[in-house]
Structure formats: C-alpha cells, structure tokens
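so my prof wants the structure for this chain in the tokens format not the other one, which i didnt know existed until like an hour ago. anyway here's the sequence
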Amino acid sequence: MSKQKPFYYGGQALIEGVMMRGREHMAMAVRKPDGQLEIISEPLSSIYKGKLRETPFARGVIMLIETLILGIQTMLRSAQIATSEEGEKDIPPAALWSSVAIALAFAIALFFVGPLLLTHYAIDPFVTSALVSNLIEGLIRIGIFIAYLKLIGLMPDIRRVFAYHGAEHKVVNSYEAGEPLELESARKYPTAHARCGTSFTLAVLVIAIIVFALLGRPNIWLSIASRIVLIPVIAAFGYEFVRFGGTHGKNPVVRLFLGPGLWLQAMTTREPDDSQLEAAIVALNRVIEADTGETAQESPSL
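here's what i got, hopefully its the right format
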C-alpha cells in the first residue's frame, strides 16, 4: 500500500476564534461572550477535497473558491457565536452568497480594476511603453494593498482578528515542528508562516504584473475584462509558488523570494495571548481528531 502524502494543515482567523481546515473536515473554536469556547467540527464539502484539490494549478483555483465561500461562511458564523449568548445559528444561503459576491466585487474593483483605471487616465497619457505602464499599474496595485492592510489594522476589532491570525500561525508552526499542541510549545514560535494567505495575495499581485505585461496594452474594455477573467489563472500560479515555498522554506534562495510575504505578515498578525492560542490549539486538535480519530501529538516534518 502506498504511503499517504503528508497533509499540511492551515486555517483562518475568525471573530474571536480560529478555523482549521483538515484533509476531510474543518473545525472552528470561537470564544463566546461567557468566555467559553464553542467548538464546531464538520465534514468539508466535496468541492474542497478530492483529486482536484491535489492537482497542480487546479488546486489554486479550488483554494480561491474555498477562501471566498468557506472563509466567509466561517467568519459569519464566528460573529454570530461571539456576539450572541444564544450561540450559533444557521446562515441563510442568500446572506452567504450575497456576502461572497460583495467581497469578490470589492476585491476586484479595489485591487484590479481601480489601479488599471488610475493608470489609464492619469499615467498612460505620459507613457508610451506598454511594459512601463503595466509595471506602474502593478506597483499601484501593491501600494493599495499595503495601504488597505495598514488602514484596517488601525481598527481594534481587526487587530484582535490579526492576533488570532498570529495564534493560528504559531500553532501550525509548532505542529509542523513536531511539538505537542500545548501553550508552552506554541508560544515560542513566530507569527509568520510561508503558506499564509497574505503571502499568497502578494504573490498574486506580483504575478499579475508579469501576466498583464504579456498582454501589452489593449483597449480599456479588453484590459478590464482581462483583469477579471485571468484572476483564477493568476491565483493558480500564486498558490503553486506559496505551496512550493512552504515545503522548501529552508532553501536560502526560496527564503529570499518568500521574504516580502513574510515581512508583510507583520501587518496582518499580532502576538496572541494565551486565550487566543488556546482557541487555535483546540481547533487544530479537533480537526486532526476528526480526520484521523486521534488527538494530535506531532506531525510529519516538512
């Protein structure tokens, strides 16, 4: 019998909690108003697992869909739990899909269409090179992304989410180092992780510069269309880059390329307190238990 490939667990910070995604299940641990943790574990939908989830480039598109749908779904559920004594309620499908549509439209408008229009109307009249125009557009896109992270990081509620983000990374780092999933072990690990969604987003924005530069500078409507329809393609390449970096992080050349993403995580993570680390530990333990039937003690090394 062939040995099953190691699975690299990861998750997402929530409102007063953490979600961890496993091979077959997801688990979330959210702090209720009374201070107790509400723990939810559910099987993943078939779209988030199976052969496509392990197929190069296709898995990047699946991950993008997962981030939008599963990520928003668990974020909304955590908000319900964290703000209501009555606990978790079902989210109406219309509310979920509306949230996904709004989030997707906002991201496309802010990070893709907006920089294009700004460059087209403010820069292109003074630039004759399509390559230079695309480079300026890409730099504007990255600048907007960094400014956005800086601004939302000023909000107290978001800063707490960023602390849970740091807790998620510390616990995954501890697990991947083969440490027991305990507070004492998790505290000593960094809040950055090579497979973080922040690094993925930065990789997407950089790869977008290359992809759009290859298209030249068509008319504005074709340019807008390209910024929308090519997002899955760019996301697929971005995911492969981040995944490769996460499994070859000890290579000095790879670490050089990972550096900007790890640096940027200083804006999206905060040092967590023990209660936040506890939520991440409980979520990871629960999802591993759901996947394997055993409580986690250690993991295969990278």
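also thought this was worth mentioning. The longest strand covers residues 25-31.
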